[in-house]
Amino acid sequence: MSLSFTDRVAIVTGAGGGLGRAHALALAARGAKVLVNDLGGSRDGVGGSTSAAQAVVDEIIAAGGQALANSASVTDFDAVQAMVAQAVEAWGRVDILVNNAGILRDKSFAKMAIDDFRLVMDVHVMGAVHCTKAVWPIMNERKYGRIVMTTSSSGLYGNFGQSNYGAAKMALVGLMQTLSIEGAKNDIRVNCLAPTAATRMTEDLMPPAVLAALKPEAVVPAMLLLASEHAPNRTIACAGAGTFEAAHITLTPGLHLGLTDDTPERLAAAWAQVSDRDGEIVPASGAAQGSNEVGKALAAAG
Ligand code: NAI
Question: Is 54 touching ligand 1 by the criterion CB < 6 Å?
Answer without folding.
Answer: no
